[in-house]
Design a protein that fits this description.
By secondary structure, the chain is α/β, with parallel strands linked by helices. Helix content is 37%, strand content 15%. Bound molecules: nicotinamide-adenine-dinucleotide and uridine-5'-diphosphate-xylopyranose (UDX). It catalyses: UDP-alpha-D-glucuronate + H(+) = UDP-alpha-D-apiose + CO2; UDP-alpha-D-glucuronate + H(+) = UDP-alpha-D-xylose + CO2.
């Protein structure tokens, strides 16, 4: 294995083939977000790599930037810049060995309500990053999404078809599954479509110009620091992803809202398991380059309704509070997200490629990951929510 779970980096790190890993300089764009913050933490705690952390915000990595005495001082530098319009970006990519691009608008509530911003963020703004990497012969790890698969083939079969039970109709494979999106009026797919086109550009840069790339397709990574709690560390009217929506409801003792009955299925993976996979990609370029990797946990599948029920139980355990009498309420997608919303029905990643190339497997069960995440949510937000509820006028 390449890493030990100690807090100080081991002096010699070996890759999966037994070669010494040289310290790298990594330009990480979107380093201040949910995934970026965990990746920075991992790189500081367990490796000798240097991170040029690019983002417009740094609240989620402040704990890594501030302590002057931290053992990693000098190995992480924050560069506050918007990649849409900042000429410093090319210089940062040029002086790095590897660029990791995480920057994106990636909350479903935005896809149908801000489709232009979504398409620009996920496609147009990512183009110069690809171009600078290609022109300067720099390696790129680009974050795409499991949403590029869209809906499953099985979802188009009659409801009572026995083929719906056949994995061939729902397992999502990097090299064979089609990308099935709804009509253009269903603006939900603006995100998936933009991500698909940037994947195709990166793949073509690899094929025609020799760009050394890896594409990551995350399948619902969740954990501490994901998104924001509306009215506490994000806008009151904002709609984050489901983990933060449900956490907010639990913290406020409100029913969890099940969109269109909560029948959609997802597989959730603990952020810390997923970050292990990314570190393997960073440190094993010969095994990771030229590949597209699903990164998810096929064993953690639930419907959104089941997720709501499990989160309610877990939150009760970690907070010591009984759950409310009506823990969930149904809401239509039109009411919750507005016109143009649509949904992925089911998302189970095929793990063959990542297993073969990197020998990686997820470890944490859904119950365990919810327990550690909701313990964090309770510790971080319960007091602030109590105060906000007590003084509504001040918010
Ligand atoms: N979390 C998941 O489960 C998941 C699933 C699928 C795909 N992804 C992809 O992974 C990536 C990271 O996701 P995340 O969950 O950490 O999201 P996030 O929103 O927490 O992080 C994205 C970061 O990018 C920054 N950013 C956006 N536009 C920028 C710009 N123009 N200039 C500079 N910084 C900018 C944001 O400020 C934010 O800190 C995204 O590309 C997303 O599409 C994530
Ligand atoms: O309060 C809520 C929030 C969400 N939901 C439902 O929960 C499911 C999951 O919603 P999320 O907000 O986590 O987002 P999705 O899984 O649909 O998409 C995500 O997947 C992969 C990434 O690319 C993005 O981070 C995001 O697009 C959806 O079916 C949604 O309709 C609720 O039922 N209630």
């Amino acid at each position: 294995m390449t890493s030990s779970p100690s807090s100080s980096p081991s002096p010699v790190r070996l890759d999966l083939d037994g070669n010494t890993i040289k310290p790298l300089t990594i330009c990480m764009i979107g380093a201040g977000g949910f995934i970026g913050s965990h990746l920075c933490e991992k790189l500081m705690n367990e490796t000798n790599h240097t991170v040029l952390a690019v983002d417009v915000y740094n609240d989620k990595i402040k704990h890594l930037l501030e302590p002057e005495s931290a053992p990693w001082t000098g190995r992480i530098q924050f560069h506050r810049l918007n990649i849409k319009n900042d000429s410093r970006l090319e210089g940062l990519i040029k002086c790095s060995d590897l660029t990791i691009n995480l920057a994106a608008i990636c909350t479903p509530a935005d896809y149908n309500t801000r489709p232009l911003d979504t398409i620009y963020s996920n496609f147009i703004d990512a183009l110069p990053v690809v171009k600078y990497c290609s022109e300067n012969n720099k390696r790129l790890i680009h974050f795409s999404t499991c949403e590029v698969y869209g809906k499953t083939i099985g979802s188009y079969l009659p409801k009572d078809s026995p083929l719906r039970q056949d994995p061939a109709y729902y397992i999502l494979k990097e090299d064979t599954s089609p990308c099935i999106f709804g009509s253009v009026e269903k603006q939900r797919w603006s995100y998936a479509c933009a991500k698909q086109l940037i994947e195709r550009i990166i793949y073509a840069e690899g094929a025609e110009n020799g760009l050394e790339f890896t594409i990551v397709r995350p399948f619902n990574w969740i954990g501490p620091r994901m998104d924001f709690i509306p009215g506490i560390d994000g806008p009151s009217e904002g709609v984050p992803r489901v983990l933060a929506c449900f956490s907010n409801n639990l913290l406020r003792r409100e029913p969890l809202k099940l969109v269109d009955g909560g029948e959609s299925q997802r597989t959730f993976i603990y952020i810390k398991d997923a970050i292990e996979a990314v570190l393997l990609m960073i440190e094993n370029p010969a095994r990771a380059s030229g590949h597209i990797f699903n990164v998810g946990n096929p064993n953690n599948e639930v419907t959104v309704r089941q997720l709501a029920e499990m989160m309610t139980q877990v939150y009760s355990k970690v907070s010591g509070e009984d759950s409310i009498e009506t823990p969930t309420v149904d809401v239509s997608s039109k009411e919750f997200y507005g016109e143009g919303y649509d949904d992925s029905d089911k998302r189970i990643p095929d793990m063959t490629i990542i297993n073969k190339q990197l020998g990686w497997n997820p470890k944490t069960s859904l119950w365990d990951l919810l327990e550690s995440t909701l313990t964090y949510q309770h510790r971080t937000y319960a007091e602030a929510i109590k105060q906000a509820i007590a003084k509504p006028a001040a918010n």
